[in-house]
């Protein structure tokens, strides 16, 4: 700082010992070079040349390089010529210097004014350090060494202060530039400090227009207040208790800082905080909180008293088990994360919240175990979610999946959904990331593979042997839903391909319409029945099943439109599709089955081979969050493939999948 009035006495005194030490050093050198020189008053042995040079350094205007010149003056004086002629001006300066030395108070003021007021720069600091090193070599005095160390430390502290001030100035400029551009940072709208203006702004938010907006005005302790909330999103009993407690306040119990008193002393709620931005307050209230406003304050107290309409946890219809828990996720985010936290009591379990959608502001929770999950996977998922730019997510997780995964027209799912808390907890322990979306009972598990989608919780609720058997049955059903109809159709078109043991395969009659049309109509009929079952009320479901089985199936065969074999194999393929644990995977397999049937009808054997190869290549090249979709088949991992084919006992499954790149590879300590 150039204003020397702001310098402290300690800051002013650190250079004076340096000047005195320098003058003593010059005095000793002159005594060696000129032992017969006359002494001045008070024992000063200064040569006039040296005194004049020091006087010039003090009286001349100083810049940032003057300190370095002072530090090097002792070395330059050794080689100066002592026999030069003296000028009268130099003598006058010598006399003035001697008078300054004699008057210590005046010398102290002059040195403080001319030297201490200068800011140390990088060159001056380096010169000062060089001077200290030279002084350490030539001087043995402890007093001079201590003064040099003090000067160096003080110069370093000045340099640190200068750097911090420069950094603060740069930050201030960058913030000003961000506000000037306007497109990078949004304008912050404060909360009005007058209750009349506050109520007027609430009218812009729908007050007096939307019937579910409630504003309760009261005078508490001689202070006008307003409680703002949405009817149906809050617990009225909690707010009633809060207002009952506040009605006992008297004017003399509230200080001038009313907000502080209400926030810390008088509002009997568990979760409260103060907010000073209008948009943040509206968002909190629309999320189910209540805003308590006090006249004269530019902040509002947010009271968390949420009570969303919700149903109780029930067993998911798509993931039913014979043995196991019967609870499932619901449409409330807090209930869902609590169900997982109840099963996974690990302090390393993390729940990160992100809001997506400019209008809906949907809460999205990213769950993971910090010391297990790969940090790059977490960062990738977090970045993809934060980059979503939409008006909102009214369809919750499905829209979020399309906005983040971006698989295009690929029918196969790259995300696994689950409605069971135990399944989500198990995947978190493996190293997966779970994504909860508010208003959705399904949770996304990332990343996923094709073989993750064909496993079911029931397999782990049985013994390893029975679990393996159930898994094989499920695999057979999935393969039948894919290849049974195309292969049978290929044998019908190419009878020479049938083995001798399968000579009985084949229709005795072809029907009135081509067989490929029969397959396509049967596929459409099964889809139509499935959609009708979803939209049919439960009491009418039995009647619809009778109509589908008797009237449609039997009459269609009797009239000759379909043959028996087509209906039979289509029923087997439909059962295999319904046995697929992932509903999305079952739909994708149906599309592939139709593709194979069409290729077989047009190109026969080459069509079947080429279509199957293209499907496998497409799945092999697919990746889910930078993980191969067909792992452990492609790339092949023998140990992981065995764990897919056989359900291993829990004590033998000691390691986590290397596909997830977990921080901790072992699940349990090795014995």
UniProtKB/TrEMBL annotation:
InterPro entries xref list: Spore_Ger, UPF0353/GerABKA_families
Compositionally biased region (Basic and acidic residues): 59-84
Region of interest (Disordered), ranges: 1-93, 117-191
UniProt GO BP: spore germination
Key words, A-Z: Membrane, Transmembrane, Transmembrane helix
Domain of life: Bacteria
GO cellular component, one term: membrane
Residues passing through the membrane, by range: 472-493, 540-561, 567-587, 594-617
Family: Belongs to the GerABKA family.
The protein's name: Stage V sporulation protein AF
Annotated organism of origin: Paenibacillus cellulosilyticus
């Amino acid at each position: 700082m150039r204003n020397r009035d702001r310098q402290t006495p300690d800051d002013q005194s650190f250079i004076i010992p340096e000047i005195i030490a320098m003058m003593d050093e010059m005095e000793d050198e002159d005594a060696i070079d000129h032992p017969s020189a006359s002494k001045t008053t008070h024992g000063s042995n200064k040569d006039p040349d040296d005194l004049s040079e020091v006087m010039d350094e003090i009286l001349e205007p100083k810049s940032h390089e003057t300190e370095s010149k002072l530090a090097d003056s002792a070395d330059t004086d050794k080689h100066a010529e002592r026999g030069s002629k003296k000028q009268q001006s130099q003598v006058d300066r010598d006399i003035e210097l001697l008078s300054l030395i004699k008057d210590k108070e005046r010398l102290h003021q002059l040195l403080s004014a001319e030297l201490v007021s200068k800011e140390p720069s990088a060159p001056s600091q380096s010169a000062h350090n060089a001077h200290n090193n030279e002084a350490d070599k030539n001087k043995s005095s402890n007093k001079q060494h201590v003064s040099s160390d003090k000067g160096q430390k003080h110069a370093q502290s000045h340099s640190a202060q200068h750097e911090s001030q420069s950094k603060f100035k740069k930050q201030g400029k960058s913030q000003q530039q961000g506000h000037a551009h306007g497109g990078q940072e949004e304008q912050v709208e404060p909360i009005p400090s007058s209750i009349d203006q506050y109520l007027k702004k609430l009218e812009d938010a729908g007050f007096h227009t939307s019937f579910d907006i409630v504003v309760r005005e009261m005078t508490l302790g001689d202070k006008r207040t307003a409680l703002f909330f949405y009817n149906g999103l809050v617990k009225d009993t909690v707010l009633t208790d809060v207002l009952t407690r506040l009605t006992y306040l008297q004017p003399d119990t509230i200080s001038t800082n009313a907000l502080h008193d209400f926030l810390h002393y008088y509002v009997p709620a568990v979760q409260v905080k103060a907010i000073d931005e209008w948009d943040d307050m509206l968002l909190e209230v629309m999320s189910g909180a209540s805003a308590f406003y006090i006249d004269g304050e530019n902040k509002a107290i947010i009271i968390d008293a949420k009570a969303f309409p919700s149903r109780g946890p029930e067993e998911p219809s798509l993931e039913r088990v014979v043995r196991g828990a019967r609870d499932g996720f619901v449409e409330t985010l807090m209930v869902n994360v609590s169900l997982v936290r109840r099963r996974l009591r690990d302090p390393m379990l993390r729940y990160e919240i992100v809001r997506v959608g400019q209008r809906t502001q949907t809460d999205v929770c990213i769950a993971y175990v910090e010391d297990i999950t790969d940090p790059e996977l977490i960062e990738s998922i977090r970045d993809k979610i934060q980059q979503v730019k939409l008006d909102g997510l009214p369809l919750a997780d499905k829209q979020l999946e399309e906005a983040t995964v971006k698989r295009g027209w690929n029918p196969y799912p790259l995300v696994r959904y689950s409605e069971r808390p135990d399944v989500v907890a198990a995947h978190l322990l493996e190293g997966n990331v779970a994504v909860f979306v508010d208003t959705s009972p399904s949770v996304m598990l990332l990343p996923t593979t094709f073989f993750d989608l064909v496993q079911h919780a029931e397999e782990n609720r049985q013994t390893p042997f029975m679990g393996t058997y159930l898994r094989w049955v499920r695999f057979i059903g999935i393969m039948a839903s894919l290849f049974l109809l195309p292969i049978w159709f290929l044998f019908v078109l190419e009878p020479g391909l049938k083995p001798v043991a399968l000579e009985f395969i084949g229709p005795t009659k072809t029907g009135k319409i081509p067989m490929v049309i029969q397959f396509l109509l049967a596929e459409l009929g099964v889809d139509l029945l499935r959609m009708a079952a979803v939209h049919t009320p439960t009491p009418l479901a039995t009647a619809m099943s009778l109509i589908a089985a008797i009237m449609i199936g039997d009459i269609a065969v009797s009239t000759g439109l379909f043959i028996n074999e087509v209906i039979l194999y289509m029923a087997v393929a439909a059962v295999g599709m319904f046995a697929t644990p992932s509903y999305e995977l079952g739909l994708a397999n149906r599309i592939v089955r139709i593709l194979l049937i069409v290729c077989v009808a047009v190109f026969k054997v080459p069509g079947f081979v080429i279509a199957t190869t293209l499907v496998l290549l497409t799945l092999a090249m697919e990746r889910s969050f930078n993980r191969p979709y067909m792992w452990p088949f492609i790339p092949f991992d023998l140990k992981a493939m065995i764990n897919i084919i056989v359900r291993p006992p829990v004590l033998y499954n000691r390691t986590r999948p290397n596909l997830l790149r977990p921080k901790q590879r072992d699940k349990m300590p090795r014995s």
